[in-house]
Amino acid sequence: MLPSLRDPKARSEYPKELPVWLELDYFRRSRFLRTWRGGLSWGALALGVAVVAWLLGGTRDRRAFQAAPVSRVHRPINDDCLACHTRGFETAKRLWRNDAATHSVPDTACQQCHPGSIHHARELGETHCVSCHREHRGESLLAQLDQGTCTSCHADLTAHTASAKASDVERLIRNVSAFTTKGHPEFALWEAGAQDDGTVRFNHRKHLRPGGIPVGETRTMTVLACDRCHELDQGGRYMRPIDYSRHCRECHPLQTGLAGDFPDGPARQEWAVFVATPLQHPNRGETAASVRAELRERFTAFAQGHPEVLGLGLSAPPARPVPGARRPADEQRAEKEWAWVAEQLRRAEPPLFDSKAGCLYCHTETTKPSDRPGGLPAYAAPAIKERWLPHSVFKHETHRALDCEQCHAGASKSEQTSAVLMPRIAACQQCHKPDASAARADCAECHVYHNPVAERSWKGRFTIEQFFQGHAPPRNAAGSK
Ligand code: HEC
Ligand code: HEC
Ligand code: HEC
Ligand code: HEC
Ligand code: HEC
Ligand code: HEC
Ligand code: HEC
Ligand code: HEC
Ligand code: HEC
Ligand code: HEC
Fold first, then answer.
1. Rounded-to-integer distance, Cα 28 and Cα 36, Å
2. Which residues contact 308 (CB under 8 A, 6 or more apart)?
3. Per-residue pLDDT for 324 more than 90?
4. Closest Cα to atom 33, ligand 9: which residue?
5. Are 302 and 309 in contact (CB under 8 A)?
6. Ligand 2 geometric centre to CA of 74 (Å)
């Protein structure tokens, strides 16, 4: 206190006696706040209820209750809380029991729109949709999960596998804890004594000579690129299957011949076209029989177009054959034609079916040449694999900055079909690491969780209006059941 304000007569430095100044009986007096406390809290509650009711009923803007909007894919149902919140919020229960497994959104709510099929017939342990797919996180991706959602089982898989149930994979159960050298096993393919079971003979080294190989009639030296034969599928994920017509025919056409002497004239011109036109290679599901059928058709057409080759002194079929009338000349002609075609076939087939320059250039015969049913050879099924690592997903396009051989090491030097040219896990782990300055290494980057076959079935039964309300319609209300 400033000396100028002091009472000079006072004993104390303070303006009043202490008991006067302190109002010692203050707690006996009636106080404004105390009297109204009860009333105020009831009032606040009533106001709160009114605001909630107004928000819920009056404005329909329920976003006020959300921490953040739902994920991008669910925006159309963002305002329909009941689409997912089909039962009361369980927050209190969760906090009370300190139990993260209590969820306020049941699986059935999600399954109105998605089957969310199970992961594996043999899995043991409780899984809830919303323990993996977290909502109200704004733009974060619903299906981009931490690896903890997988390693909760996979780090100790034996404990989470029901050995009594039949499995679709018969393999060793191996634990996976992270995408690191120690945490993730080498791809099983390499452990089983890797072998490519394809049967079509192919030598990468001979086709990928650095100086090129002769192509076309001019035999221009051309350096082949990998994508000359390996084309990306439409989704940019895997390589399309090797196809003879697209990838081999240009350099290895199936040529055939036409025996006989053809003096200058139309028949000779036609002959030149005939021998220059390669045969069709069997399509998927066809056999050598399709080659024989094409040969027969082409020989017959030739004989009919040029009957002079039959040696009958005829030039062309009669202009107007009398219907029903069979003349000896016709019969003789048909017989001659048949014999000529048979002779052509007898000569054309061995170079195709028996010589090393024919089908055997690429294929292995499974029949004995001395004992072919119907005289036709059968060949080992090509068995060129379309997928090598079927328990994972991959996308070639995402890696297009790399040279193919960074992953498929030694492909251009490979000489045998049986060689496996697949990457080892070490190649991936140079970029995919569980740290911030690397490509993603969470399990869902390379694996699917839901059984893809079951997930693809179409069970939708909403009308567009019902979809926006997010309510399950009664069965058979929307047409299909
Ligand atoms: C696409 C489905 C979906 C929609 C639509 C949705 N939510 Fe949620 N909400 C969830 C999920 C999932 C959780 C997390 C539940 C859990 O972990 O138990 C959640 C949690 C909550 C929580 C936290 C309470 C708790 O128990 O965890 C609140 C509050 C909430 N939502 C409010 C709303 C409101 C208000 C709306 C409507 C405007 C809404 N939500 C719409 C899926 C949804
Ligand atoms: C009213 C229908 C509806 C409900 C209810 C619903 N979803 Fe969806 N969900 C959709 C639609 C539509 C899409 C976008 C198309 C798609 O991927 O199937 C989608 C997409 C997804 C995706 C794919 C996300 C992505 O990034 O591709 C996941 C995961 C998902 N929902 C999980 C859930 C979960 C978990 C629940 C329950 C909390 C749920 N959904 C409830 C309609 C619904
Ligand atoms: C252990 C974690 C986990 C659980 C539990 C889980 N999911 Fe998923 N879900 C994933 C992962 C990982 C993906 C992304 C990879 C994939 O497609 O399998 C995914 C993808 C999806 C997709 C998008 C797939 C597509 O093909 O469109 C939908 C929809 C979905 N889940 C719904 C559900 C529903 C519904 C449930 C509950 C019945 C559920 N999930 C339970 C991990 C989980
Ligand atoms: C509830 C336990 C459980 C959870 C959670 C789980 N898995 Fe599995 N998973 C299994 C079981 C059990 C098997 C089958 C093991 C066997 O029979 O060889 C399996 C098999 C697999 C396989 C190999 C076989 C196949 O069919 O492709 C992959 C890959 C896989 N899980 C990935 C994942 C990923 C990715 C996640 C997380 C999104 C995940 N798992 C979460 C239990 C689980
Ligand atoms: C002239 C066509 C052709 C060219 C060019 C070609 N390939 Fe192939 N490739 C094939 C054929 C045919 C097969 C199937 C037979 C086999 O497995 O050898 C194959 C198989 C493969 C396979 C899977 C088989 C396995 O054993 O792993 C890989 C990987 C592959 N090639 C990589 C390459 C790469 C990398 C290049 C470029 C350096 C390349 N190929 C160039 C024709 C070709
Ligand atoms: C661009 C032209 C070209 C294409 C396309 C081509 N090849 Fe070849 N192929 C050649 C040449 C040239 C040789 C001879 C190479 C040598 O002997 O040095 C050859 C040789 C071969 C050989 C014999 C190799 C050996 O070990 O002697 C086989 C088998 C073969 N190719 C199969 C195929 C198959 C299967 C395809 C389609 C997937 C194919 N080729 C596509 C040009 C091609
Ligand atoms: C230059 C190599 C080459 C020659 C020569 C060749 N093929 Fe093939 N053949 C292939 C390749 C590559 C495939 C697998 C891709 C495809 O079906 O186009 C195949 C596939 C096949 C198939 C299996 C079709 C299916 O169902 O998938 C048959 C059958 C067949 N060839 C028969 C023949 C016959 C008969 C000949 C001789 C007239 C022949 N091939 C000559 C390369 C060749
Ligand atoms: C980042 C590594 C990587 C690069 C780069 C890469 N591949 Fe692959 N490739 C793979 C993996 C992983 C698979 C196994 C995919 C599967 O079937 O699961 C594969 C599979 C293949 C197959 C077998 C068919 C298939 O799609 O499964 C062929 C053929 C092939 N690759 C050729 C090529 C060619 C040609 C290039 C360059 C244009 C290339 N790859 C670049 C990793 C790579
Ligand atoms: C960068 C890609 C990548 C990542 C990240 C990844 N994996 Fe894999 N994983 C693969 C490939 C490729 C295979 C071989 C698939 C095959 O053989 O068909 C595989 C195989 C597996 C298998 C089968 C093992 C066996 O018995 O053959 C399981 C289980 C598995 N992974 C689980 C996981 C889990 C859990 C995570 C997360 C911690 C994970 N993976 C992360 C690429 C990956
Ligand atoms: C040179 C680095 C590099 C190598 C080597 C590499 N990756 Fe990747 N990969 C990436 C990048 C970068 C992405 C995209 C960014 C991301 O998803 O983190 C990616 C994405 C992926 C994806 C997701 C693809 C998509 O777009 O859906 C898969 C699956 C994958 N890689 C598997 C593999 C496998 C399996 C191998 C080994 C055979 C491999 N990667 C090797 C860099 C690499």
1. 16
2. 267, 314, 315
3. no
4. 443
5. yes
6. 6
| Higher pLDDT pick, 8 / 326 | 326
Whether 147 is in the pocket of ligand 9, judged by its Cβ within 6 Å, is: yes
Task: Kindly state the helix (H) or strand (E) to which residue 215 belongs, with its residue range.
Answer: strand 213-215
Give the distance (Å) from ligand 10 centre to CA of residue 416: 28
Is the pLDDT reported for residue 7 higher than 60? no
pTM higher than 0.90 for the full model?
A: no
Q: What is the mean pLDDT of residues 135-149?
A: 82
Tell me: the pLDDT tens digits for 265-317? 888 899 999 999 999 999 999 999 999 999 999 999 999 998 888 876 655 55
Note the pLDDT of residue 161: 87
In this structure, are residues 415 and 469 in contact, taking their beta carbons and an 8 Å threshold? no
Work out whether the CA dihedral 82, 84, 86, 88 comes out positive or negative: negative
| Ligand 7, residues at Cβ distance < 6 Å | 200, 242-244, 248, 252, 254, 281-282, 284-285, 287-288, 291, 352, 358-359, 361-363, 379, 382, 384
Segment 216-224 long-range contacts (CB within 8 Å, at least 24 positions apart): 216/250, 216/251
Residue nearest to atom 30 of ligand 6 (CA): 202
Note whether 189 and 388 are within 8 A (CB): yes
Q: Kindly state if the Cβ of 472 falls inside 6 Å of ligand 3.
A: no
Locus of tokens 């959300």: 66
pLDDT (tens digit, 9 = 90+) per residue, 216-259? Answer: 888 899 999 999 999 999 999 999 999 999 999 999 999 999 98
Exposed/middle/buried for 382, CB within 10 Å: 0-12, 13-18, 19+?
middle
**pLDDT computed for residue 103 by the predictor:** 79
Ligand 5 contact, 202 CB (< 6 A): yes
Other Cβ atoms closer than 10 A to 359:
20
